[in-house]
Write a structure and sequence with these properties.
Keywords: Signal. By secondary structure, the protein is of the alpha+beta class. The chain is built from 13 helices and 20 strands.
């Protein structure tokens, strides 16, 4: 059963906002198309296949909506349906007669709502977030749904009453990415350039799926009909979910290949979940036509004008905002970069901007070598979340200086889109919490953010914590951001950067969500028409290091895949990786940085004596050590090496 929202007294934030399965691989109607293995070369010397440039036409967008609406009618439901392309452009939002204009987010378990808990949000925003999640989490090697997302963001993995005591989901916290305030994510006013932002971040509410053409992911469909924007706390049962059945019907003719469904992918021996609805249980919607379907296109401020259905942008083209790197932009022919639609790389490799703050910033050559060495590790790494088995890992790699300014972003051709924003969040987070300025900037922030510094210092018994004495990878910060410490261990205290378990759900994670709740409130008020101005193009109320820019301008991230960068014991930046398994992400960032240091000298990982795994926390009469990085077993396709990070 899905957690349902209950009525509660509205806080000031809520008042602003309200103004406005297959159970393991048995889906019977999926496409039989098999994706091209990512290990096949696309041209001489290349290691990756470049996805075919497929896109949804406006007519096909109408077909997706019509089939979803036909299923909703057959069920007796009225739905709001959204369709996006692979890079998040909203191609259509459709409201059936009687569809609710709003949806409710569940209350906190103890009824004391914070952050996004207990809020009423626009139904269209929920549908768009679900569609974006289906598109962004998927690739030609994996098809993930919002039900998959639900499974990997909760306090235990897999989430179920009987799994208490297991560690949290591997992508715990990813729901607070693709934020509407992100300085990386594009907006509708930017045209068809992606990747686009999401009004509610990534969704864990079943009812969002990817869309495919000829085995190539081209977008996503999202549905809300039941008035609840929630998550599934128990993967051991099979839900009858109205939203999921409607969205699944929308994928007919655009199904993900069954060979790459989430239930064909295992994490720590556990099969992921794709859908509790099955194609065989759906009505016959194959003849549905958009013309004559009851309902109307719905304008959504900041996302879609509601005038007409739009065609999608083909991923890999200039207009998509993500394209192959030019020969002068990066040293590997497999690399892709972000572009502005007119041929200009949005995040070219460059030197650090923080020369006024530190003695020796990262040079442009060092930035290039760091990214190239990380890219080389990725191209050798065995993927965890891709089919077929023994595919190469595909990720996005981001590099920042101490001000959080981007010094370069590169990615493999078919890495999942969500990893672009997340890799940058990770790089900035590792840099920020390892820095001498972290405590001061958090203490100067608005709202409850400063209180987290006090709680952390008490928890670590260190009155000088967050002033640069220790280097924190995202795995370390993630340890401190879980509602159980040690992670998953029931009956223990909560991490100091988390909500206590009595108050926790995926809509309020702690410092991560507290940093951006003001941005979310401002944005949703703008979407509903309750406020004239949108949230700025940067997140958080932290000190601005230049006009309209903070060090963590797209929010923080709290699952592994990043390390800070040092020169002679001095912090000079951070590298973040996202798009595959978290151990693979850790290895690519940590080992790539190490190899870069070996190549150019002077830069590298934090010294052993200052890494966060030197920190011991007293818990229940014993000492618990924080983690730094964790590299995978049998990590490479081209060798039988193991323990590749040990001793470095």
């Amino acid at each position: 059963m899905r957690a349902k929202a209950t009525s509660s007294s509205l806080a000031v934030l809520a008042l602003v906002l309200t103004s406005c399965g297959d159970g393991g691989g048995s889906l019977s109607g999926g496409s039989s198309v098999t994706p091209t293995p990512t290990t096949a070369p696309s041209s001489a010397g290349a290691l990756y296949s470049v996805p075919a440039q497929e896109a949804l036409s406006a007519a096909e967008v109408g077909t997706v909506i019509a089939r979803a609406a036909a299923q909703a009618s057959a069920q007796g439901d009225a739905a709001t349906i959204a369709v996006v392309d692979r890079v998040g452009n909203v191609l259509g939002v459709f409201a059936m007669p009687g569809a609710s204009a709003t949806s409710d987010i569940p209350d906190s378990p103890n009824g004391s709502n914070v952050d996004a808990q207990g809020l009423t949000v626009p139904a269209a925003a929920a549908a768009i977030a679900k569609a974006i999640t289906g598109a962004y989490l998927s690739s030609n090697g994996n098809a993930f749904s919002t039900r998959t997302a639900s499974m990997i963001v909760q306090e235990h993995f897999p989430p179920a009453p009987s799994t208490a005591g297991l560690e949290s989901g591997p992508l715990f916290g990813v729901q607070f990415s693709q934020l509407p305030c992100s300085d990386l994510s594009a907006r509708a006013s930017d045209g068809l350039i992606g990747p686009k932002r999401s009004p509610l971040g990534l969704a864990a509410d079943p009812g969002g799926f990817p869309l495919y053409k000829n085995g190539v992911v081209v977008g996503g469909v999202g549905v809300i009909s039941d008035g609840v924007y929630s998550f599934d706390p128990n993967v051991l049962d099979t839900d009858i979910d109205a939203d999921e059945a409607i969205a699944l019907a929308g994928t007919i003719g655009f199904e993900a290949p069954t060979s790459i469904h989430a239930n064909r992918i295992f994490v720590d021996g556990t099969s992921l979940r794709y859908s509790d609805a099955a194609y065989s249980s759906l009505a016959d919607v194959s003849g549905a036509s958009f013309t004559g379907t009851p309902g109307a296109l719905l304008a959504v401020t900041g996302y879609y004008d509601g005038v007409a259905l739009l065609a999608g942008s083909a991923y890999g083209t200039e207009t998509s905002g993500i394209r192959a790197a030019g020969v002068t932009e990066f040293g590997y022919q497999d690399a892709f970069v972000l572009s502005d639609g007119a041929g200009t790389n949005r995040f070219p490799i460059r030197a650090g901007t923080d020369g006024a703050d530190i003695a020796s910033p990262i040079s442009a050559n060092e930035a290039r070598v760091i990214l190239e060495e990380a890219f080389a590790i990725m191209s050798r790494a065995r993927a965890q979340i891709r089919q077929p088995l023994n595919s190469r890992a595909q990720v996005t790699i981001s590099l920042v200086d101490t001000r959080g300014e981007v010094l370069g972003i590169v990615r493999s051709p078919d890495a999942a889109i969500f990893g672009i924003d997340v890799s940058l969040q990770k790089a900035r987070t590792a840099n920020f919490i390892s820095a001498p300025f972290a405590a001061n900037e958090l203490q100067a922030a608005t709202g409850e953010v400063p209180a987290f510094v006090t709680v952390l210092r008490t928890f670590l018994n260190d009155p000088s914590a967050l002033t640069g004495q220790f280097a924190f990878a995202d795995r370390s910060g993630g340890n401190l951001s879980r509602p159980y410490f040690p992670d998953g261990e029931v009956g223990q205290i909560s991490g100091p950067l988390s909500r206590p378990i009595e108050q926790f759900n995926p809509f309020s994670t702690g410092l991560q969500s507290a940093l951006v709740v003001g941005n979310l409130a401002q944005h949703l008020a703008f979407v509903t028409g309750a406020a004239p101005n949108d949230t700025p193009r940067f997140c958080t109320s932290l000190q601005q290091v230049r006009p309209d820019h903070t060090r963590i301008a797209n929010g923080i991230q709290i699952f592994p895949g990043s390390v800070p960068i040092y020169r002679g014991g001095v912090l000079v930046g951070g590298i973040g990786v996202s798009g595959d398994g978290i151990d693979q992400d850790d290895m690519i960032s940590f080992l790539g940085l190490h190899n870069a240091g070996q190549s150019v000298g002077g830069i590298g990982n934090a010294g052993h004596d200052i890494r966060a795994d030197r920190i011991l926390v007293s818990v229940g009469g014993r000492k618990v050590r924080l983690r730094y990085v964790n590299c995978p077993f049998a990590p490479f396709l081209d060798s039988d090496e193991n323990n590749v990070c040990e001793g470095l």
